Amino acid sequence: MASWVLSECGIKPLPRFYSKPRTSFSSNSTLCFKYNAPTTLSSSRDKFFNRTKNWALNVTTPLTTLQSEEHTKSFDPGAPPPFNLADIRAAIPKHCWVKNPWKSMSYVVRDVAIVFGLAAVAAYFNNWLLWPLYWFAQGTMFWALFVLGHDCGHGSFSNDPRLNSVAGHLLHSSILVPYHGWRISHRTHHQNHGHVDNDESWHPLPENIFKNLKKTTQIFRFKLPFPMLAYPFYLWGRSPGKNGSHFHPDSDLFRPKEKTDVQTSTACWTAMAALLVCLNFVMGPIQMLKLYGIPYWIFVMWLDFVTYLHHHGHEDKLPWYRGKEWSYLRGGLTTLDRDYGWINNIHHDIGTHVIHHLFPQIPHYNLVEATEAAKPVLGKYYREPKNSGPMPLHLLGSLIRSMKQDHFVSDTGDIVYYEADPKLNGQRT
């Protein structure tokens, strides 16, 4: 009987959203007893019971009006958060901000050793049964090199800009990424995350632009696996919908004072490309395709997969902003953390993407601790990632669903959400 209350209308169950009755006392109780006074009672007693038949209102209550309103109030992800950036920063332990160059370099040594070790083993055995395993393993290791170079670009590798630049050029050039060009482009992405017009990576298309795209362009952008196959060009050019190049110093991506940096990165990229051409003559194009070409393609497809899912594919629609509604904090809070199972360590925990986007200065090896510390402040604005098995196969469902639903946003409005084009999904309107 603990889950039932006696009311004026008889015995009623407690509301479903309270699994246990409250035992606190309140003057706004709904627990009451009906008393039907006998007709033989005196008029004075009638008046007494008429006055006091709801005496149980002062006894107990299963809930209060305020608690009910708070419980049933829906969460609006586009609403300004009740905290600011300083509140999140204060919750993160101070040691999480410390950059240890020796620790960062130890990860570089580890990853480079694994890359060369995998290549040596694959070349020695040269077994077609082992090649697919090598391609996947080496592709993920190329991604590991990319993440470390990405840390150099953010300055989270060390406090020494020269060390960051040298390590960044070596790491990124080895996988044919122009270091400074991509660093600056990625900086633009972080500074404008969540902004419909100014974001640099996988930003949404306004409806009028989307509907004026050629049908083939729509298919290649929103149908698997075409976007992943096309994504290598983002490493060299820019994301879909953006003009310019990571190689050209006069691109609108760069400031005049960054011209020399872009030229330096282009020279390093060219040197690596020349080295690969020479190795083709030494080892043969087929061997180079197996050792470098296919792993590289897997790496860029994986980069596409990861980058997209850090900003798309949540079960609930997440907002994008324009105009006065956008802020650095609100834009960063629409990013998503992801769990990659065994690959988390290879990814250098880049799946902790929310805190990384808000505070890119935090080294990757402190992101997990910083995220846990910030969760109580973030509250519902933090979307807990779904736990992965050894391999993150569950993310394929998120990718497919997003590709079917996230096509364009409204041309108007400062807070907008992705909409789907039924024709692109083969549905009739």
Task: Please characterize this protein's 3D structure.
With 429 residues, this protein is mostly helical. The chain has two domains: 4-67, no CATH class; 85-416, no CATH class. It has helices at residues 43-52, 65-72, 85-91, 101-125, 131-154, 161-174, 179-191, 207-211, 215-222, 226-230, 232-236, 259-283, 285-309, 328-332, 343-346, 353-358, 367-378, 394-405; strands at 4-7, 10-13, 320-321, 415-416. Strands 1-2 form a two-stranded antiparallel ribbon. Strand 1 (4-7) and strand 2 form a beta hairpin. Helix 5 packs across helix 7 (179-191) and helix 6 (161-174) packs parallel to helix 12. Residues 1-72 have low confidence and may be disordered. It is found in: Membrane. Its main location: membrane. One of its GO terms (cellular component) is membrane. Keywords: Fatty acid biosynthesis, Fatty acid metabolism, Lipid biosynthesis, Lipid metabolism, Membrane, Oxidoreductase, Transmembrane, Transmembrane helix.
Number of helices: 18
Proportion in β-strands: under 5%
Please, what is the average pLDDT?
Answer: 82
H-E order? EEHHHHHHHHHHHHHEHHHHHE
Tally the beta strands.
4
Total of domains: 2
The class by helix and strand makeup works out as: mainly alpha
**Which spans have pLDDT < 50 for at least 5 consecutive residues?**
1-72
For the largest sheet, list the strands in their spatial order: 1-2
- Helix percent reads 40-55%
Domain Fatty acid desaturase: 127-382
Pathway: Lipid metabolism; polyunsaturated fatty acid biosynthesis
GO biological process, one term: unsaturated fatty acid biosynthetic process
InterPro entries: FA_desaturase_dom, FAS_N, Fatty_acid_desaturase
